[in-house]
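SAMPLE LOG
Freezer: B-3
Tube label: C17
Construct: single chain, 535 aa
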Amino acid sequence: MQVGVLDYLIIAIYFVFVLGIGVVLKKQMVSSEDFFLSGRSIPSWITGLAFISANLGAIEVMGMAANGAEYGIMTAHFYWVGAIPAMVFLALFMMPFYYGSRVRSVPEYLKLRFNEPTRAFNALSFALMTVLMSGINMYAMALVFKLLLNWSMTASILVSAGVVLAYTILGGLTSSIYNEVLQFFLIVFGLLPLTLIGLANGGGWQGLIGHLPKGFGHLWSQAGGTANPMGIDWLGLVSGLGFVLSFGYWCTDFLVIQRALAAESLSAAQRTPLIAAFPKVFFPLLTVVPGMLALSLIPALGSNTTNYSYNMALPLLLSQYYPSGMLGVGLTAMLASFMSGMAGNITAFNTVWTYDIYQSYIAPARSDRHYLWMGRVATAAGILVSIGTAYLVMGFPSIMDYMQMIFSFFNAPLFATFLLGMFWKRTTPWAAFWGLVTGTVSAGVHFALTHFGMLTYSSVMAGNFWRATMAWLICFSVTFALSFVTKPRPVEDLQGLVWGLGGDTPLIREVWYKRPAVLASMVIVMTLVANVVLW
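STRUCTURE (predicted):
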């Protein structure tokens, strides 16, 4: 990759802006709520863009391009089946509970709805998940630094950690959110020309499909069985990805929910995931299609786990199409995506660690200033641990395979707990705890059986989908059954925490284009059209 002086200058200017935002906002971080939740004062258009940008890390940009090269357009299922429906459900049905109860984190909701052990188990597992996920973005950033400067992976990882640490520890969640908005526009303007140039040079969509393996251009037509690029049928797609993994992530993962909780009102919080859903419909153009273009140009892609791994699809395509100057914009877009993803995980980690572990079990009843200090310490500690987890990612051919494996362990069973807890008042505290534990353990057992060859699937991703489905079913079944033999919480303790039990927020008449139901209907129609067009 030939990187010129102009490219380095563009990247340097971006880093100055990122760090400058952290410095400017540091003086506003006077309380722990300012640092962790931005004082719940940010407009919905900003929280909406931050909501999607926090998810636009290495997983989305580099991982989806890798999957596009590996599985073709079926990767778009991660958007149109595995994201949009769950984002709509979160906005319409779950956000009133999260925002209306004034909880500071997802584990805190579990404490109010169930008990301390359920909260503690989720807080510990979420803290582990966030540093594992943060390692993905650190690894991806290090790959780009290695390409730019020919540094070793270790040096590249350390530089990546230092940059994110600097602006996150200064400005907290507010710094992350405003940087995520900046990063959203950088990603769009940096990567969209890549798709347009690639399709123009390759003879359009039909010309691209003609240079790819059979089935790479269809979403559903080959999903009647497993003879398709992803190696999974429609039932596994809908149950594993479309229901368990997507709802488990979008409806329970504090990384994204934290952005909605920073909104200025409940209505703004509900609009947050819906505003994010509109650009999400079109994101396969920025991520999946470039991966397919890379495979059509570089047939050796995927032949090894180093220079020609699927993870290298986007960097290799950038070097093919972008001249000096434009290459700097493209590389900056990639770095922006990795930094937003990593900072998102770290800000979620420091909130859960400080409120749900440190304040609850280690140092209760301390001053607000003390918890603000601990939040900054947790930020530094989370990044240090992420340095170690970055090395775990190197052993996987695709970072999306790694990510979905993690989600099948933690998010899949958690969604079963939330579904029963929010919509069935009979769900008991100890049933929720043991259901969550058994669901998580069963995912570990399934992974071990797959790893040692006792269970086999057509692809790694198919194994992830079925593991998630099994973990959800076990958690749901155990929680449901134990709820009949254990003591439920009094109904008066569940006001505002369970559907239909008080806590209703008065309806505020909004102009039609701000109403959550209208926005949800519009984005669902757009998603259905996209599925039909690429059937």
